[in-house]
Amino acid sequence: MAELTMVEAINLALAEEMRRDERVVILGEDVGVDGGIFRVTKDLIEEFGEERVIDTPLAESGIMGVSVGMAMRGLRPVPEMQFSGFSYLGFHQIESHLSRMRWRTQGGRQVPVVVRMPYGAGVRALEHHSESREVFYTHMPGIKLVVPSGPRAARTLLVAAIRDPDPVVFFEPKALYRAFREEVSDEEDEPITIGKAMIRRDGTDLTLVAYGAMLPRAMEAAKTLADGGIEAEVIDLLTLSPLDHEAIAASVRRTGRCVVVHEAPLSYGPGAEIAARVMEGAFLKLQAPVMRVTGPDVNVPYFAREQLYLPDAERIADACRATMNY
Amino acid sequence: MPREPLQFESRVERLSILDEDGKADEELVPEIPDDLLVRGYRTMVKARRFDQRRLKLQRSGRIGTFAPVNGQEAAQVGTISALDETDWFVPSYRETAAHFWRGTDPKDILLYDAGYNEGGALAEDSRTLPLAVPVGTQMLHAVGIVHAARLLGEEEIAMTYFGDGATSQGDFHEAMNFASVFDCPVVFVCQNNQYAISVPRSRQTRSETLAQKAIAYGVTGIQVDGNDIFACHVAAREAVDRARNESRPTLIECVTYRLEMHTTADDPSRYRDEEEVAKWRQRDPIERFGKWLMARGLVDDKGIERMEEEITDEIQAAWKATEARIETLKDVGPMFDHVFAELTPELARQRARMQDGHSPGGWKDG
């Protein structure tokens, strides 16, 4: 067992999978010699060489399009978009080809690409470096989207993503990259099943749904609420697409109340989809409307105000109390 | 000297072998076995007749929009015929003639044109990729394919097709750049057919030629008469050799003309006059190649008549087979196939609901 940060855990998963499967290759901007600007791919070029850890020209569409071609020829590329805010230049290749190639060829070609990209606010970064635009990718048929909430989840979820036969967008909550350490097994851990949520805390009074960088804040809020006698059941989504809505609905059928947390803007965010699913799966058990604790419908402000933008434990707890008092 | 002309290597030539009257510079005509010459001619004629039949099918509502190849047959057959079967063909959406050379079944094209995904089904070992609709995006796939092959210890080459409009796209730049930086054996075939729907070549770039764009990437470029099958073939053969022997990309600009509409949804009379089209009809790639073949005694009127009959029958049989297949494909279910490797529980639920006549969303018993 070793205590690892999320950056180290992702690095470990990449190295393990590259050792296990020669078809796994990494490509992107600064991923080789530099080891990635967050050091996620640190030292991998030394072990696996520049043919498998490829520093590319600065061109996101190129990285994505070449990854599609590599996957069609039998590799398992793990391209890095340096920030999710830069992935839009590669968006066209993801939407028009990566998500559709299996479907277009009626199963004749698979494109098992894992697109890693750091997302989210909280690291005092420049404009375009802090957004949380997961719904761009969850709205694409044919793409799976996963978001780890800590080092252990990052390691096992990435392993599952790389072994998955379908394209996966792997959202990395960069605010958690070095926020805390967790014990990560030296042995190979069981990969997390993509498409399955996990209950991180049992509770009977309400269901609190979160993922990624908001999960620790939801857990903190749950602790505060418990001091006041409210027991929240915290669900960590881990996969946003395909969404494990049955796990959410099952929990809400027990608790009768639901609060969803995400840092993406309110309107048309994941909370809207989750609220609709709760309506379909737990309507008669609901004792309050589904509450959403999210970013407002504005761009992430420059970093002096980013913590004001982000949901925090206090805002989450406040929403939970309002739901209890409805 | 504080200021002097930059010196850099610029290898961009223009090649023309077979003129509008079917007269060739015989010294430059490549060595091609007679049966392949006739096969090339037949493929060009078949592509044109196929378009004519498809246009009737489209106008009568039996198939949807498609992009005619008319006028570009030499640019396609001349280049694709330089490839081996084991090489990769990465097309855009107008390469019907090249598809026929590669053996794509007209039934599959017609099924696709009729709006059925099943028409795009690809065998797992196929090195003929399906058509790519978004302009310019497929060039990067060609680069990725050959680069992956190299990492897997195989030497494979790819030929990818696009038009003059695509050279304005960022993906053209990114693909040329990646291919050159990574020494990728890709042949980039630009069919400069003078128009991107309505916008003329002069509005795409002030660059005097498209071929010269190769210079900036450190790539060899060549411009050929795109209605001259020999010039296209010679340039492609050289590019294929360069790919195989030196693992270097090449940009070929085939100067040609789209004699018909962009797609069947387009009315070209809005943006070009008949005089211009008539001028290009004089340069028809099939006619000039036919004249040369006749002069060489490789085809005659009777043989062409027989060939035309065979082609008509072949296309008719393909359409009959397509119509019969369509009758078996009316279910709502197949749209859910191959979205993922395995149908997710959610998609299974949505499919079942739709098969029962409901909307995909909803609740149990709802």
From TrEMBL, chain A:
Origin superkingdom: Bacteria
Location of the Transketolase-like pyrimidine-binding domain: 4-179
Requisite cofactors: thiamine diphosphate
Listed Pfam families: Transket_pyr, Transketolase_C
SMART domains given in the database record: Transket_pyr
SUPFAM superfamilies according to UniProt: Thiamin diphosphate-binding fold (THDP-binding), TK C-terminal domain-like
Keywords linked to the UniProt accession: Oxidoreductase, Thiamine pyrophosphate
This protein's record includes keyword Oxidoreductase: yes
Protein's UniProt name: Alpha-ketoacid dehydrogenase subunit beta
